Amino acid sequence: MLPSAPLAAGVSATATPAAALPTRPGGWPACASTTRRESTATCNCSGHSDECFYDRELYRSTGHGGRCLRCRDNTAGPRCERCQPNHYRWDGQAACQPCHCNAAGSLQLQCDSAGACACKANVTGWKCERCKDGFHSLGDGGCRDCGENGAER
Questions:
Q1: Is residue 74 located within the same domain as residue 104?
Q2: SS3 of 51, please?
Q3: What is the pLDDT of residues 76-132, one digit of tens each?
Q4: Of 31, 55, 82, which closes a domain?
Q5: E strands in the chain
Q6: Enclosing domain of residue 28
Q7: How far is CA 41 from the centre of its chain?
Q8: What angle is formed at CA 109 by the lines to CA 88 and CA 145, rounded to 5 degrees?
Q9: Mean per-residue pLDDT for 139-153?
Q10: What are the residues whose beta carbons fall under 8 Å from the beta carbon of 72, sequence distance 6 or more?
């Protein structure tokens, strides 16, 4: 029996080892919809989870039924194959990193695949954290022109 731990909905706390059960496509136990896997070979959790279960709907829509549980390294998805929202991963990196886009200066909190954020008008910087030359007062609307309201350049 597997060690007891909080489990996702539809996962049995008294899982039977996969090798002891009849199988479905992909080597999944016949009653795998409520069986936790001791091996993630069938799941292919991208190295970011040690647990998975058979998801019939996922199998019907994708041809693989392994849904990973508790993805690590800020990853998400049935196979822990993508980054969580507002995270990115450079090529070759295992873990996803937080974007840290400046909420006042960014158009959105999601960055691109290199970690750069999309900036509002007259805002600059990797994380949209400062005003462009000739502008000031970073706020929710971006930065204001130094020539506005009597401000000097």
A1: no
A2: strand
A3: 999 999 999 999 998 778 899 999 999 999 999 999 999 999 999 999 999 999 999
A4: 82
A5: 51-54, 66-69, 75-76, 82-83, 87-88, 97-98, 123-124, 130-131, 135-139, 142-145
A6: 18-82
A7: 21
A8: 130
A9: 77
A10: 48, 49, 80, 95
| Domains: count for the chain | 2
φ/ψ bin of 103: left (φ > 0), alpha (ψ from -120 to 50), beta (otherwise): alpha
- Dist CA 108 CA 111 (whole Å): 8
Cα separations in angstroms, 123 against 87, 101, 102, 119: 21, 12, 10, 6
CATH number at residue 74: 2.10.25.10
Task: Compute the CA torsion angle 12, 15, 18, 24 (nearest 10 deg).
Answer: -30
* Residue 103 one-letter amino acid: A
Neighbour count for residue 136 (Cβ, 10 Å): 15
